[in-house]
């Protein structure tokens, strides 16, 4: 596992969450710092001659703190100079099972600031990326690896969700917590007035979607027979439904469609909304 550090307050939360997650997985943890200083940063930038020492000290201090809290965890450090942060993080993620990044809270209404580095890194890698938020006024993350609460998975029934199901089921099983699967939907425009004419139309659509969702989950229920799964096909904007279900979650899982064309990489609007407004850690999983 790799966690990216940039010296912001969110580092404490993301590194702490990553250490607990690494213990759950029985994995080693790599602390990574990339020297990619913006010209107009919102925090003080060290003088050019002190960049290397500052980065090394950041890694050393974080490693020392985590080693004291997790003495059995194997922790390594790495610093990359002169590279674009998003490209360097994506390249490092290629050799990791998981990439963890921090984000900070802007306010109860504005949500969380993911930042250009996080937003640029996610579309560049097929490795799952987890965004961890620092709880307001505290160093601890808003959600914790192993925290009480379910793993919440948002799915689109029109997509191939196997990677999402695999990731979410594994995370829920590691935590011994329930898995809540959400598909949000709205009636097609052509049926806008149909419920008034036939109250059964909306119900028939809902039953069909719920049956489809149960069918997609069937193989995963067999693979994880001890996992408690709550599947819901609910009317409403998907992002809103996922965020409502995510209140108190240990982890939220959403997808990003892999685009092979050079100009096609982006994060969809539902995943973008969840990334910026969910208080729990958010895992973005690339899928076909």
From TrEMBL:
Domain UspA: 2-133, 151-285
Signal sequence residues: none
SUPFAM superfamilies reported in the protein's UniProt record: Adenine nucleotide alpha hydrolases-like (SSF52402)
Pfam family, one: Usp
InterPro entries: Rossmann-like_a/b/a_fold, Universal_stress_UspA, UspA
Record PANTHER family: STRESS RESPONSE PROTEIN NHAX, UNIVERSAL STRESS PROTEIN UP12
Family recorded in the similarity comment: Belongs to the universal stress protein A family.
Name recorded for this polypeptide: Universal stress protein
Lineage of the species this protein comes from: Bacteria, Bacillati, Actinomycetota, Actinomycetes, Kitasatosporales
